[in-house]
């Protein structure tokens, strides 16, 4: 039992307690020692076996030996496990913030995590669940997903936690792994290894299945996409970018999922609404795709929505995306933080079918001058009540905290950079581009020429028929449902309201604001409307579009107005333009 001196591989003399390692009669002791000297793992296993024999060693020693064995064997097991997975499975890694990943998370959340009786862990999310693909509430309305219990705004949801989940689809097993960008799982195979374009690791998901073909994985992704279309057809993915990389996802685009804005909640001339929708639907039809391909025309389409602020340009774009079942991408150039390069990358990252909206294109400093310009601070709108966080300026220009006024921002996008991003040779095809503007006359003609802008649409102030509709929507529904009014009564109120409010004077946002404050009470609306008209008419800013010379569309570009006058047949001119 005396300790024996042995020579370690690095030349030091160490003392080892060897006696319990041997099991007499099985293998010569000197052979075992030689093997143990060469491999410490084998030595630990030998020690464990020696301690584990009945009647040898104390219980505590057996326990310590067991822990040591686990410590040694687990990396070996992981290595073997990874080797097997790598050799016999196919896998796909996706950044967690990619729309495809969100669809998979939605499916795993709904079909595996929520339904599993054996799930012992899940990440519970509440509040803004939109980042996880669960639709956020839109305009305060609760969302009902087809085939699922109605969701309420205070519901919580279970999504798969960081870690692994094994499930079956039919007869095929799948392994789903969700990994954090920093912590990650220990297994390199289940670590997504996804990095953003700056090389920073991303949260990611990995899907594995046995076999050497990617086909089952692609079928599974398709299955999740179809599931989303069927079960979550009440939602629209809205991505936005202000020029900076999203700090949460490290992506160029930040995405939220919103309940779909229905077209019938946009009050505008029904004919121009139908015309726009039909134009967009035709653009995405197979017939139109074939036409573009046959004629060698780049498959792109552009609209310019112009009109005073608050007339529904952005809202209509969102409703159109919902109608076309595609995602909406919003770019705000007015932040002064989007560079030419960034804009180009944003366009390259777009999916094939989507609507891209460049908001307030006139205010981003790209005027008729060909190049970057200093952005003049936007003309402040006259709000009906002062915004609580805005600090008024003192006569010397400093605000009430004594801070000097912010210098005007230097716009980083040049006109050529913008043109290159939207229809340069490297620019992606398939998107529907919508530019919105409060003052279209200052836009460079190069930006609005046919081919870049195919349809110009004026979003005007409210006309009586739109006033009638918005009254029924914002007051009528609630009054009938909870205050016992009849359809007939509401119709009369709506007609009176639309007759009282002067036409072409107020924007839909202004009327919406007034009616919302009446909280579904038609009497309150009727009593307050005259005072509101007087008060708001005075406050109503002289809108840039009203002052400016009406935009004359260049030849070949159709123009429609959403609120007034007979409409030119924009669709006919579009189709004839395409055909010839
Ligand atoms: N035509 C409309 N029908 C229904 N709601 C409208 C309409 N126009 C505006 N609104 C409401 O007014 C608000 C502002 O609308 P939106 O942001 O779409 O206007 P906009 O024309 O894009 O303004 P801006 O030029 O400032 O971007 C939203 O709450 C929207 O619901």
From TrEMBL:
- Where does the BCS1 N-terminal domain lie? 71-266
According to its UniProt record, which reaction does this protein catalyse? ATP + H2O = ADP + phosphate + H(+)
Q: Which GO molecular function, any one, fits this protein according to its record?
A: ATP binding
The record's listing under Pfam families reads: AAA (PF00004), AAA_lid_BCS1 (PF25426), BCS1_N (PF08740)
Q: Which UniProt keywords apply?
A: ATP-binding, Hydrolase, Membrane, Mitochondrion, Mitochondrion inner membrane, Nucleotide-binding, Transmembrane, Transmembrane helix
Q: Where is the composition biased (Basic and acidic residues)?
A: 536-546
**What are the residue boundaries of the AAA+ ATPase domain, all occurrences included?**
299-459
**Chief subcellular site?**
mitochondrion
Q: Does the keyword Transmembrane helix apply?
A: yes
Q: What GO cellular component term, any one, is given?
A: mitochondrial inner membrane
Reading the lineage from the top rank, the first entry is Eukaryota
Q: Where is this region: Disordered?
A: 369-395, 536-564
Membrane as UniProt keyword: yes
What membrane topology term does the record carry?
Answer: Single-pass membrane protein
* Record localization: Mitochondrion inner membrane
Q: Which family does it belong to?
A: Belongs to the AAA ATPase family. BCS1 subfamily.
- Entry-linked PANTHER family: BCS1 AAA-TYPE ATPASE
Q: Report the protein name in the record.
A: Mitochondrial chaperone bcs1
Give the species this sequence originates from. Paraphaeosphaeria minitans
Source taxonomy lineage? Answer: Eukaryota, Fungi, Dikarya, Ascomycota, Pezizomycotina
């Amino acid at each position: 039992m005396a300790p024996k001196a042995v020579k370690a591989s690095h030349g030091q003399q160490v003392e080892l307690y060897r006696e319990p390692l041997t099991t007499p009669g099985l293998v010569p002791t000197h052979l075992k020692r030689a093997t143990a000297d060469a491999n410490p793992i084998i030595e630990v296993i030998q020690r464990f076996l020696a301690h584990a024999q009945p009647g040898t060693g104390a219980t505590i020693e057996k326990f310590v030996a067991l822990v040591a064995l686990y410590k040694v064997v687990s990396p070996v097991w992981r290595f073997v496990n990874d080797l097997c997975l790598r050799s016999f499975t196919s896998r796909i890694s996706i950044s967690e913030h990619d729309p495809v990943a969100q669809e998979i998370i939605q499916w795993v959340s709904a079909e595996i995590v929520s339904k599993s009786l054996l799930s012992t862990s899940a990440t519970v999310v509440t509040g803004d669940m939109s980042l996880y693909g669960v639709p956020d509430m839109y305009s305060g309305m609760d969302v009902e997903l087809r085939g699922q219990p109605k969701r309420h705004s205070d519901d919580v949801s279970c999504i798969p936690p960081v870690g692994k989940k094994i499930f079956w689809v039919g007869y095929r097993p799948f392994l789903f792994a969700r990994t954090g960008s920093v912590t990650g799982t220990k297994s390199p195979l289940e670590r997504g290894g996804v990095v953003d374009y700056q090389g920073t690791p991303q949260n990611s998901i990995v899907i594995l299945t046995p076999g050497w073909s990617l086909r089952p994985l692609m079928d599974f992704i398709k299955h999740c996409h179809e599931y989303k279309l069927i079960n979550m057809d009440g939602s629209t993915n809205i991505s936005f970018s202000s020029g900076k990389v999203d700090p949460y996802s490290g992506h160029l685009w930040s995405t939220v999922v919103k309940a779909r804005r229905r077209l019938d909640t946009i009050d505008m001339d029904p004919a121009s609404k139908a015309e726009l929708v039909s134009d967009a639907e035709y653009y995405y039809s197979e017939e139109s795709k074939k036409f573009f391909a046959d004629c060698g025309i780049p498959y792109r389409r552009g609209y310019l929505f112009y009109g005073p602020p608050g007339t529904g340009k952005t809202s209509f774009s969102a409703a159109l995306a919902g109608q076309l079942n595609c995602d909406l991408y919003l770019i705000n150039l007015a932040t002064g933080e989007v560079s030419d390069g960034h804009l180009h990358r944003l366009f390259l990252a777009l999916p094939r079918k989507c609507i891209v909206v460049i908001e307030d294109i006139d205010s981003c400093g790209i005027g008729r001058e060909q190049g970057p310009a200093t952005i003049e601070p936007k003309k402040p709108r006259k709000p009906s009540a002062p915004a609580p966080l805005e600090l008024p300026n003192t006569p010397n220009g400093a605000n009430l905290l004594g801070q000097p006024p912010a210098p005007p921002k230097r716009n980083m996008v040049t006109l050529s950079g913008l043109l290159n991003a939207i229809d340069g040779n490297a620019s992606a095809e398939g998107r529907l581009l919508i530019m919105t503007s409060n003052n279209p006359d200052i836009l460079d003609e190069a930006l609005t020429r046919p081919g870049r802008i195919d349809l110009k649409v004026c979003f005007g102030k409210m006309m009586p028929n739109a006033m009638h509709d918005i009254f029924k929507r914002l007051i009528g529904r609630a009054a009938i449902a909870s205050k016992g009014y009849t359809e007939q009564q509401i119709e009369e109120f709506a007609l009176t309201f639309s007759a009282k409010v002067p036409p072409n004077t107020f924007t839909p946002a202004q009327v919406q604001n007034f009616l919302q404050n009446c909280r579904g009470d038609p009497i309150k609306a009727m009593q307050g409307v005259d005072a509101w008209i007087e008060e708001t008419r005075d406050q109503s800013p002289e809108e840039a579009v009203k002052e400016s010379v009406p935009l004359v569309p260049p030849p070949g570009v159709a123009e429609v107005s959403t609120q007034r006058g007979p409409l030119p047949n924009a669709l006919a001119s579009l189709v004839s333009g395409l055909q010839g």
